[in-house]
Design brief:
- The chain contains eleven helices and eight strands.
- By secondary structure, the protein is an alpha/beta fold.
- The chain folds into two domains: about 220 residues, TIM Barrel (Alpha-Beta Barrel); about 30 residues.
- An eight-stranded parallel barrel has the order 1-2-3-4-5-6-7-8, surrounded by six helices.
- Strand 1, helix 2 and strand 2 form a beta-alpha-beta unit.
- The protein is globular and about 65 Å long.
- The structure holds 3-methyl-2-oxobutanoic acid.
- The site of 3-methyl-2-oxobutanoic acid has 11 residues, from strand 6.
Length: about 260
């Protein structure tokens, strides 16, 4: 495929608008790919969005491998990245490389890891695995943050800016900025030479990433501040299943048309 997205192509999109979306299986990846997104992330939001966990912390490498393999089947043009789950890269660079290799074997073309783990990032890059960085309100640190709170406010902005620079220096090809003030995201975007991908980080990043189920309104809750429902998917799906149920109960489905 001539216009297949690659990590170097994303790296070269600094200053352009990069469209990223999560997906967790073959059909959601195929839908995102058909819509022409540049990068599909098998996020560890898998835990809370799909597997019903309270947060991302229980997600295992095996679960990420399983869902990455599924998403691989639906992703054709977009760059497919996968999240390194909690506990698979923090202890050593060796752990990071071993975990990254498993995700690549499952079909990932890049991995994402939270925080400035420079040794791990360098090890992965040396092993030929492109790395996305991630700073700000990194969900794997929810216990340390005491909840999902905006990071990098006031004097703490320096911590986020410094972490982003260290991640760039370690060799990441792009970086996610999550739930930080728009002014801090703007400064990081101006300072770094790699593209910044925002989520709850305002309009000044080089691109945006959102969670599939959030933008399609697949849950009954109203959208959180960092996202928007571009479809009322939950209502539409309930209505469609209601029509199906009515058809079965009234005997209008299946008909001869659906028979062999
Ligand atoms: O797991 C995830 O969904 C993420 C976000 C940045 C979209 O990491």
């Amino acid at each position: 495929m001539a216009d297949k997205m690659t990590a170097p192509k994303v790296r070269n999109m600094k200053g352009k608008r990069i469209v990223c979306l999560t997906a967790y299986d073959a059909p959601t990846a195929a839908i995102a790919d058909a819509a022409g997104v540049d990068l599909i992330l098998v996020g560890d939001s898998l835990g809370n969005v799909v597997l019903g966990y309270e947060n991302t912390l229980p997600v295992s490498l095996g679960e990420m491998v399983h869902h990455t393999r599924a998403a691989r089947q639906g992703c054709k043009r977009a760059l497919l990245a996968a999240d390194m789950p909690f506990g698979t890269f923090q202890a050593s660079a060796e752990d990071a490389v071993r975990s990254g290799v498993e995700l690549v074997k499952a079909g990932a073309e890049a991995v994402k890891l939270e925080g400035p783990y420079e040794d791990g990032i360098e090890g992965l890059v040396a092993a030929g695995i492109p790395v996305m960085g991630h700073v700000g309100m990194t969900p794997q640190s929810v216990n340390a943050f005491g909840g999902y709170r905006v990071q990098g406010r006031g004097k703490k902005s320096d911590l986020v800016i410094d972490a982003a620079k260290r991640i760039e220096d370690a060799g990441a090809f792009c970086i996610v900025l999550e739930v930080i003030p728009a002014s801090v995201a703007e400064k990081i975007t101006e300072t770094l030479s790699i593209p910044t991908i925002g989520i709850g980080a305002g309009p000044f990043c080089d691109g945006e990433i959102q969670v599939f189920h959030d933008i399609l309104g697949l849950t009954s809750e109203p959208p959180l501040k960092h996202t928007r429902h571009f479809l009322n998917g939950y209502e539409q799906m309930v209505k469609a299943i209601d029509c199906y149920a009515e058809g079965v109960r009234k005997g209008t489905f299946p008909t001869e048309e659906n028979s062999f």
